[in-house]
């Protein structure tokens, strides 16, 4: 197809926006003089490759001999450039990787080459070209016209193979997935709301992309003017569209990550790019321990048998995306993955494409906003749904992979089914710290709900097992049990015959399992009755009341199969079932109880006042301990029903009564937040005894704030010095350390270092007293609250602090990322298991003494800087609440817990989650980086040689490297120009200079951090992550601008805008535009129509783009 066939006689110069190219005269001269008529594709391909070489001086092999095929007017149209046979465009990538500058350019080239031949909508092509390649509007128009006329080839892969000699990298899949989802969505948007809205969305994106290219504040103002001119309904549609596109981008990324992982697993290669820092393949870990680190296979096996990782699901911060949408996103993800399968047929492809469009439209048509806050029971149901969907089957599948990996290093034995490798706990319905909605009744409900769900899962699976174990041969022990059950079944009205038919006596395994099924049925129905009405006619004896009862008949079947030579059958579904029972028990998860120490003090104080012995609260720590130990050693009850109780005191005591009432395996630990002294622990021990808890829960002190972390080792030493308590714990103790509040209290730098030192000291104290200490890490999903890649987080912990035993929180906002799909569940279990094993068998290096001294010095400076800004700056709270959406956080209805521990108060009473959320929304991330720059500047200015030491620490000390890398990643997500827009619109003018000072600190800190990492640009060592983040930027920028101007309209009643007429058109017969119906979804808003929903949608969209809420 010659150029003359495109809209008249368009020459090569018109086909290229020459203003965007360096060396334009030379390039155009070559085209004019050598090629009178040639393909526009050929010209673009030629110029782009030439441009890469000219601008970056790569001197790519064979590039000088790259030429275009001459064609005549009458020649058959050509669709591909014809380079020399030995030329490969992948040489660009190879050269770029060597200099760490140009890998993204290769991706852009691939994007253009793939899209130009595909059947994408013209506007989608326009948008994609302009946002990725920064081409101008006029330049793209010819390509659009060509794309309309080109025939679609077999697949994008086929096009790439023809267009680009050599292999197409799997990394390019991300752009391909992203482009497909965007194309489908834009078509749907136009169908539902009309072309005007679609064009508005595209124009908003283009302005954002232009801002991202030059960071010109004028572009943000232009974008703000466009957004504020929209009527309420159209504003909602635009905000909803960008939030939806970010969710689709996340899905494309997840499918791409899974694709990359499959490729790497197939190759057995985990050493390329940056994957070694984020992946932790179990087999690779075993081989490394045995091959490189010279551990024996038996040592690995023994360590694994004694290892436990307990994953504790928490509700807060709650996933901001509604469960209904998460399920639709899961189906979109599956469709996308299947569309690119190698063995897909044309019919399958067409049907999957239709399904993909259907699910995208269904997600867009679903109201994203929770109209009422979730209850703790709702949060529990949402969290437990992952067990039904992925975890239940994922655990035995993962444990089978462990067996395979062990076999591959020479261990011809399976991991014992009762090895506690993976355990699950929950704070949902048990975490009452500052959450008045978690009552004793709620705790009772969630425990019964979990037991009901467990019984349901077991009940549905036992039937499958009965069909599988149809064998007649068994050992004498099983035969005797089967005969006994057959005789007793004639007298028993509730038996297997009621479910299907009588089990033949010559099928003994089915006879035994039918009795298991009957008891599971009774167990399930009793839980259902207790949950509904608190009573049940089914006696407890007819149910399974403990895990030993449940396991016994299953173990009997297993032993019998092995004894009869049927071990392969025993090691099939029966082994999986045994492992599920050992992992999940009868309660599915164990619920932890968390309460503030002051609440226990209030109860004990009420008791001592009632007894007439004074106020417990006013006693010294020594007197408290003396009295508590005296009562713990005695047997008299301390109080009766006549104890005067406030509502708060009754709540605490009733919680202990629920613990006493329910089965002990329903609960895990009793965690005391804000713990400071041994008396905090002893008080809980006493209250458990007074409320008749038969099997007391282990009591876990939680140390959170900087001062508490510093004092924690001394407090634990005093606790272990108490003979009564040391006998009580029997050599096992758990301590929780909090990352969220410590970071809010002192800043990320100082908190991270104090957490590191506290763990070392706590382990040392425990060893001195002969106690094995388990560290419970209360990590958040965000870097500001201790989050980060699992593998790195574990391997950067101090030596000897994990020792095969680890508890860690899995925050509500990251549960979907960790367990939303089977492959995600498998990967999560693998990462935790492999990293924990590696840390125990090959601990990280301990920091040198000079490193410690430097860290101590920097921590003091970082804390002073952080607190000087956050707590001592007189108008900081005013600035914070003006410059961020903190005040509006609660309107998202994403959690059951209030955002503050106390209704009134400043930063101190604000929870860590909304504190991080507010700064994340504005992309300023102040809690993460504040203090780092001051600390680095101080030590470098003091002695320039300290810069070299910091680089040495970065290269040799995992803890310090992880700290720096995570902050660098946060800087890559940040944008001070966006924060400046919030300041300009929302902060009083006399505080603008304060914001400017903070942004100057931001830039200085970023510069110092890059010096230490020895990087020229952010994420220089991780180009794949850099690409992923860049793909999101323009989406997020549009939402940031929309949010800032919406906040302005909400907060400033004098701010007025002139609205344009309706843009959105509905394709239905309704008389109202579809956008007006969206406004009516929130009829009780306190603000002008549409503003509140627009604001919430921007919050959700930005959270999706940043991939966290707090």
TrEMBL record:
Organism this protein belongs to: Kingdonia uniflora
Family to which this protein belongs: Belongs to the PEPCase type 1 family.
NCBIfam families: PRK00009.1 (NF000584)
GO CC annotation terms, alphabetical: apoplast; chloroplast; cytosol
Assembly description: Homotetramer.
Subcellular location: Cytoplasm
PROSITE patterns: PEPCASE_1, PEPCASE_2
Organism classification: Eukaryota, Viridiplantae, Streptophyta, Embryophyta, Tracheophyta
Enzyme Commission code(s) on record: 4.1.1.31
Chief subcellular location: cytoplasm
The name this protein goes by in its record: phosphoenolpyruvate carboxylase
Gene Ontology molecular function terms on file: phosphoenolpyruvate carboxylase activity
Residues of the active site: 316, 744
EC main group: lyase
Keywords: Carbon dioxide fixation, Cytoplasm, Lyase, Magnesium
Reactions listed under catalytic activity: oxaloacetate + phosphate = phosphoenolpyruvate + hydrogencarbonate
Pfam families per the UniProt record, alphabetical: PEPcase
Biological process, per Gene Ontology: carbon fixation; leaf development; tricarboxylic acid cycle
Cofactor: Mg(2+)
């Amino acid at each position: 197809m010659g150029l003359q066939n495109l809209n008249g006689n368009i020459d090569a110069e018109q086909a290229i926006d020459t203003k965007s190219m360096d060396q334009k005269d030379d390039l155009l001269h070559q085209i004019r003089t050598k090629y009178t008529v040639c393909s526009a594709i050929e010209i673009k391909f030629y110029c782009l490759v030439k441009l890469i070489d000219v601008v970056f001086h790569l001197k790519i092999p064979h590039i000088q001999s790259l030429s275009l095929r001459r064609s005549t007017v009458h020649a058959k149209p050509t669709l591909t450039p014809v380079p020399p046979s030995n030329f490969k465009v992948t040489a660009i990538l190879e050269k770029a990787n060597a200099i760490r500058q140009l890998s993204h350019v290769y991706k852009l080239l691939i994007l253009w080459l793939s899209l130009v031949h595909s059947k994408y909508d013209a506007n989608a092509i326009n948008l994609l070209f302009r946002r990725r390649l920064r081409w101008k509007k006029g330049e793209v128009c010819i390509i659009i016209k060509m794309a309309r006329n080109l025939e679609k080839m077999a697949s994008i892969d086929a096009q790439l193979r023809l267009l680009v000699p050599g292999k197409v990298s799997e990394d390019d899949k991300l752009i391909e997935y992203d482009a497909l989802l965007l194309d489908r969505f834009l078509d749907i948007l136009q169908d539902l709301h009309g072309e005007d809205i679609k064009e508005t969305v595209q124009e908003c994106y283009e302005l954002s992309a232009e801002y991202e290219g030059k960071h010109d504040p004028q572009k943000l103002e232009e974008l703000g003017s466009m957004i504020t001119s929209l009527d309420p309904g159209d504003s909602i549609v635009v905000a909803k569209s960008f939030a939806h596109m970010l969710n689709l981008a996340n899905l494309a990324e997840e499918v791409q990550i899974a694709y990359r992982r499959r490729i790497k697993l197939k190759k057995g290669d985990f050493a390329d790019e940056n994957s070694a820092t984020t992946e932790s393949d179990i087999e690779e870990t075993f081989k490394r321990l045995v091959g490189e680190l010279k551990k024996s296979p038996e040592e690995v096996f023994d360590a694994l048998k004694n290892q436990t990782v307990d994953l504790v699901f928490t509700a807060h911060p709650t996933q901001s995306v509604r469960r209904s949408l998460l399920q639709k996103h899961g189906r979109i993800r599956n469709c996308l993955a299947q569309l690119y399968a190698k063995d897909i047929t044309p019919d399958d492809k067409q049907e999957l494409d239709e399904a993909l469009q259907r699910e995208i439209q269904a997600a867009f048509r679903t109201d994203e906003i929770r109209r009422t806050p979730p209850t703790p029971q709702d949060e529990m149901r949402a969290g437990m749904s992952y067990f039904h969907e992925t975890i239940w089957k994922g655990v035995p599948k993962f444990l089978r992979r462990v067996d395979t990996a062990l076999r591959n290093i020479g261990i011809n034995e399976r991991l014992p089914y009762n090895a506690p490798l993976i355990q699950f706990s929950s704070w949902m319905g048990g975490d009452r710290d500052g959450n008045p909605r978690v009552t004793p009744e709620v705790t009772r409900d969630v425990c019964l709900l979990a037991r009901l769900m467990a019984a349901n899962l077991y009940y549905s699976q036992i039937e499958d097992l009965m069909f599988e174990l149809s064998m007649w041969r068994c050992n004498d022990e099983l035969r005797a049990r089967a005969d006994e059950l057959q005789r007793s079944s004639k007298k028993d009205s509730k038996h297997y015959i009621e479910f299907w038919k009588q089990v033949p006596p010559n099928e003994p395994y089915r006879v035994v399992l039918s009795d298991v099924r009957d008891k599971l049925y009774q167990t399930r129905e009793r839980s259902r009755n207790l949950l509904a009405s608190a009573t049940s006619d089914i006696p407890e004896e007819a149910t399974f009341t403990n895990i030993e009862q449940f396991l016994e008949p299953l173990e009997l079947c297993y032993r019998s199969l092995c004894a009869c030579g049927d071990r392969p059958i025993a090691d099939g579904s029966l082994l999986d079932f045994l492992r599920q029972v050992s992992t999940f028990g009868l309660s599915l998860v164990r619920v932890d109880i968390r309460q503030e120490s002051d609440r226990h003090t209030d109860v004990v104080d009420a008791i001592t006042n009632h007894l007439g012995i004074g106020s417990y609260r006013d006693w010294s720590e020594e007197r408290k301990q003396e009295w508590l130990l005296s009562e713990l050693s005695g047997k008299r009850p301390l109080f009766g029903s006549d104890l005067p109780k406030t509502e708060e005191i009754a709540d605490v005591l009733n919680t202990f009564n629920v613990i006493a009432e329910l089965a002990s395996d329903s609960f895990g630990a009793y965690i005391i937040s804000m713990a400071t002294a041994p008396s905090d622990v002893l008080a809980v021990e006493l209250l458990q005894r007074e409320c008749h808890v038969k099997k007391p829960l282990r009591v876990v002190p939680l140390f959170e704030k900087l001062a508490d972390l510093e004092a924690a080792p001394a407090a634990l030493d005093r606790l272990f010095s108490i003979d009564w308590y040391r006998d009580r714990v029997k050599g096992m103790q758990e301590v929780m350390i909090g990352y969220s509040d410590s970071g809010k209290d002192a800043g990320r730098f100082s908190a991270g270092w104090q957490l590191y030192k506290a763990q070392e000291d706590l382990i040392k104290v425990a060893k001195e007293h002969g106690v094995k200490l388990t560290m419970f890490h209360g990590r958040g999903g965000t870097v500001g609250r201790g989050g980060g890649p699992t593998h790195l987080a574990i391997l950067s912990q101090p030596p000897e602090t994990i020792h095969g035993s680890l508890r860690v929180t899995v925050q509500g906002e990251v549960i979907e990322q960790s367990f939303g799909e089977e492959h995600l569940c498998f990967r999560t279990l693998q990462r935790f298991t492999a990293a924990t094993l590696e840390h125990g068998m090959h601990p990280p290096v301990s920091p040198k003494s000079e490193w410690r001294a430097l860290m101590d010095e920097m921590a003091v400076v970082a804390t002073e800087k952080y607190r000087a800004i956050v707590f001592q700056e007189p108008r900081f709270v005013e600035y914070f609440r003006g410059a961020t959406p903190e005040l509006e956080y609660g309107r998202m209805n994403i959690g059951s817990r209030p955002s503050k521990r106390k209704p009134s108060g400043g930063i101190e009473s604000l929870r860590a989650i909304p504190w991080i959320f507010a700064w994340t929304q504005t992309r300023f991330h102040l809690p993460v980086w504040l203090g780092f720059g001051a600390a680095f500047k101080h030590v470098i200015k003091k002695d320039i040689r300290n810069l070299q030491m910091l680089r040495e620490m970065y290269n040799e000390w995992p803890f310090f490297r992880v700290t720096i890398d995570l902050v660098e990643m946060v800087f890559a997500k940040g944008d001070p120009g966006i924060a400046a827009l919030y300041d300009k619109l929302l902060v009083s003018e006399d505080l603008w200079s304060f914001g400017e000072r903070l942004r100057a600190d931001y830039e200085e800190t970023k510069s110092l951090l890059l010096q230490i990492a020895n990087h020229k640009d952010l994420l220089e060592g991780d180009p794949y992550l850099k690409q992923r983040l860049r793909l999101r930027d323009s989406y997020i920028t549009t939402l940031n601008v929309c949010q800032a101007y919406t906040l302005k309209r909400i907060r400033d009643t004098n701010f007025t805008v002139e609205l344009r007429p309706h843009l959105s058109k509905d394709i239905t017969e309704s008389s109202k535009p579809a956008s007006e119906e969206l406004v009516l979804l929130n009829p009780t808003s306190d603000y002008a129509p549409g503003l509140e929903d627009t604001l919430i949608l921007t919050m959700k969209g930005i959270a999706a783009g940043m991939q966290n809420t707090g």
